[in-house]
Amino acid sequence: MSLTLIVLLPFIGAVLPAIMIRAGRNACATATGSVTLLALILLMAKAPAVIGGEVFQVSYNWLPELGLNVTFFLDGLGLLFATLILGIGLLIIIYARFYLSKNDPMGRFYVFLLLFQGAMVGIVLSDNILLLLIFWELTSLSSFLLIGYWKHLPEGRQGARMALAVTGAGGLAMIAGMLILGDIVGSYNLTDILQNADLIQASPMYVPALILILLGCFTKSAQFPFHFWLPHAMAAPTPVSAYLHSATMVKAGIFLMARMWPVLSGTPEWFYIVATAGLVTMVLGAWIAIFKHDLKGLLAYSTVSHLGLVTMLFGFGTPMAAVAGVFHIINHATFKAALFMTAGIVDHETGTRDIRRFGGLLNLMPIAGTIGIISAASMAGVIPFNGFLSKEMMLEEAWHTVWFDQNWLVPLLATIGAIFSVAYSFRFIFHVWLGKPRDENLPHHPHDPPFGMWAPPAFLTVLVVLIGLFPGTIAGPLVAATSGAVIGGELPEYHLALWHGLTPALGMSAIALVLGAVILMRHGGLLSATANLSRPDAKSMFDCAMVKLVALSRLISDNLHNGSLQRYLAIMVMAAVAIGVSGFYAQPDYLSGSRELLEVSPPAAIAWLLLVVTCIASVFMHHNRLLTLLLVGVIGLIVSLGFIYLSAPDLALTQISVEVVTVILMLLALNILPKETPKESMPGRKLRDVIVSVAAGLGVGGAIWAIMTRDLPNSISAYHLANSKIEGGGTNVVNVILVDFRGFDTFGEIIVLGIAALSIFALIETVTQGEAAKRLASWVVSNRRSADRHPMMMVVATRVMLPLSLMVGVYIFLRGHNEPGGGFIAGLVVSVALVMQYMASGFGWTQNRMKVNYHGMIGLGVIAAAITGISAWVAGLPFLTSGFTHVHLPIVGEFELASAMGFDLGVFLTVVGAVMLALAKLSQVERMAEHVDVNVDPMDHDPSAPVAIPATPEKEA
Amino acid sequence: MEFLVASSIGLLTMCGTYLLLRGRTFPVVIGLALISYAVNVFLFAMGRLTINMPPILRDGVTEYTDPLPQALVLTAIVISFGMTALIVVLSIRAYLEIGNDHVDGRPVGAPSEAGDKN
């Protein structure tokens, strides 16, 4: 459990700095530090057991179907990295408190830092590789935020983008590699994968997986040729550089190589890819570092070089080299973090990072100088500091390594790398701290920083010295536990000590020190000699590649997304047809089944013929919109008749009442919209659309033909038929399904209907503003219209009809549970009755008499349905369980009262509310367009009125 | 009978799709309505066709048509009304905002078109 907490603490704690910054910078830093400290304490509590060989594991199911589970495990390797991440993280938090100026938003800095920290700890403790990948991507994202923290600096933003692009791309490759790996083993658990080295290396997919995973590692750990992002990431504040480039971000790739070492290493592919990349990176990085004038730039390239060193050691594939690699990870983290922090101090105190302007700073800043000199000496590999120990081990391993049958190449290059390393380390010492001051006019007068700023690097420098003097005591157990975890087997015979006797490695070390010093002495000459060498500028190449990529993606999206909805729709329909056709060909089957078909009756044939004619006519005459609408009405009517004929009375009732409302709605719309569609489609476009729509029609028709000519396999319908009466208390099975068996569906659907009506309301309410209002105000009613706005006969007829239609509505509602009908149909029937009033007698007249709030009605309906559903809880039954009872009333006789009726009432209210709201809002636009005031009189000519009232002015064209 | 229904569904889909691909809003609305018919009848026909077997329980009757697709289609009809209403209002609003009823919603020319001189 506490293992999960270690990972989660930084994430949970990430909210703290954002809140605590209000209490001041000290409170903010303290809160952040406490979070990390707590996680570190939890980790340390487990450390003795882990060093003793125990492995902690914790697992929660997340998506077991995908093999994705939240599983963490802590072994020696995880312990080492988690300690580095949290330990150095804590020092960085203290350091950053003093480094950041008052103008920097400190809360945000610590939030990013904790997020990053959590992601890093997640990587090193994950047992599931999918989970690991998630954390891996999180580090890319959070490091992007950290590198670009000074978002006002263009270098910061560009560096952050470059880091994200490179490491993110590598991360994508790694996802693919990890998936292959999981596929080979059949499990995404790291512990399972580590057991199956033979299986993986024998697989034909081993090399692709290896290359993809290494792409992820190399990009993250800045290995050649992906090293270029790291120096650009130096635009970040120094605490970020110190954290990301000593202990964390760039070590993630190293970590993964170490983690995967037992399964991936030991093959020639591994050796030649990893060792070569490491070797090249080590020499190249060190060479460039010598000539960097930016203090952080020098350290950045030295980091690249040292990462190459560790990569090379893991690439050798021997257990001894792995031990050396692990040991160097510890040593590099200590001296490099200290060096970065020292560089930050120098930058902070002098106001510049240009090495050419420094010199003799030791006299001005004795504490920082001592820290810097010791750490740099360790980086150079000077006795007796810890850097010497691991560099010695590296040279020893290099001495034994044969590269393509050449036994001299690797030792030679390793020595050259060491020489360069000495040269830049000495440059850091001599050109910055020692000698005479070269520039008296530094922006600030340097002096030692406050305690909080030098204490963290000083602590690390103490470690540098102690590990160097007593390697076996201080670092021995951790190295042993970690190496054991990396190798996954017996540890080789090794001895951590300063003195191993007169070995080849010692000779190489001595040569490196001497020649490194010589290079530094000749630095000026070398500088001018190499100044004119043309060297590829990674940044401009990267920028150029990015520009090309952006142009390419723009080309693709501009062509696919040209803003034409017609094209999108055509593509969607074609894609659907293509998927259907491919499905048909994937499993070729006879189109027709063997089910017995129904006879065709003459009326059915006539209806079909009518449908065919109207359909085709509606396409050919679609330019005349009113006519099309009429034809659609006919089609709806035929569909309703079809439902009656095919044993679906409920559907027929619904369809026909919906039809009425729809036609009214569209008529209202046509009052505003143009009455004709212009002929503007080109013949080519028409042909394309005909082909697309014929294909769609044939596909859909063929599919339903294939379905209908086959028998229905096991269906759940029998259950509904059998239980409708017993459990639902109704004989109309369709209605019982709606309000009972699948009541939850219906509940959702009435909510959707209500939302649609409210959206319509919102769309029309805002029509009174902007362009739309101007157009409505200048609307010219130009079409000819009836002189009779409210024909008397219709007014009278609808008034007579109203009580009758309402009665029909109530009747249909009440009987719905047992006979065709129900809330939906009743709602539509009642709506139609009300709409008739509005149409016949005018909006204003009717509105004055219909004091109903349709919004409220929708809400009431949903609430009524919900209450019915919830009331089942009172009886201890699941949501929407219905109950029913038989009631006996005089005159009416015995009838059934089901709780489902309450639900159906909700449906009824929502339907009425939604339909009426939609139509009422639509008619509001019409009235605005026609500049007609709401009429008060019910009809144009009221025969019952004592005095003839002049009719409302006609709107003749 | 099955052939008549299948061909009707195919034809409705065909005409609906063609109208859906037109450039003006109203034909698109009509096309959508036709496709709604096709989809509703399609779903209904999933329960296979029967004559004179409504799913209303009666004593002594044992054979009924499949009630489940009917229940699903019933709500679908009502929902498709809601959808049609919304899209109609959307097209009116778009017409009022930009002065033409093209589906791409790009304001073309002056707002003089709004006078509806067709």
Helix- and strand-based class of chain B? mainly alpha
Report the strand count of chain B.
0
Within the CATH hierarchy, at the fold level, what is the topology of chain B? Helix Hairpins
Large-scale geometry of chain B: elongated
In whole angstroms, how far apart are the ends of chain A? 82 Å
Helical element count of chain B? 3
Q: What is the element string of chain B, with H for helices and E for strands? A: HHH
Mean pLDDT of chain B: 85
Strand content of chain B: under 5%
CATH class of chain B: Mainly Alpha
Main sheet properties of chain A: 2 strands, antiparallel
Point out poorly predicted stretches of chain B: 110-118
How helical, in percent, are the residues of chain B? 55-70%
Write the layout of secondary structure elements.
The complex is a heterodimer of chains A (957) and B (118).
Chain A: H1 2-13, H2 15-20, H3 25-51, E1 56-63, E2 68-74, H4 76-99, H5 106-125, H6 129-147, H7 154-185, H8 190-194, H9 197-202, H10 206-220, H11 229-232, H12 238-247, H13 249-264, H14 268-290, H15 295-316, H16 319-350, H17 361-364, H18 366-380, H19 386-399, H20 409-433, H21 451-469, H22 471-474, H23 476-487, H24 504-521, H25 523-531, H26 538-560, H27 565-586, H28 602-620, H29 625-645, H30 649-672, H31 683-708, H32 717-728, H33 733-741, H34 743-765, H35 770-777, H36 792-815, H37 823-841, H38 843-849, H39 854-874, E3 884-889, E4 893-898, H40 900-930
Antiparallel strand pairs in A: 1-2, 3-4
Chain B: H1 2-20, H2 25-45, H3 67-98
Protein name (chain A): Monovalent cation/H+ antiporter subunit A
Keywords (chain A): Antiport, Cell membrane, Ion transport, Membrane, Transmembrane, Transmembrane helix, Transport
Domain NADH-Ubiquinone oxidoreductase (complex I) chain 5 N-terminal (chain A): 65-110
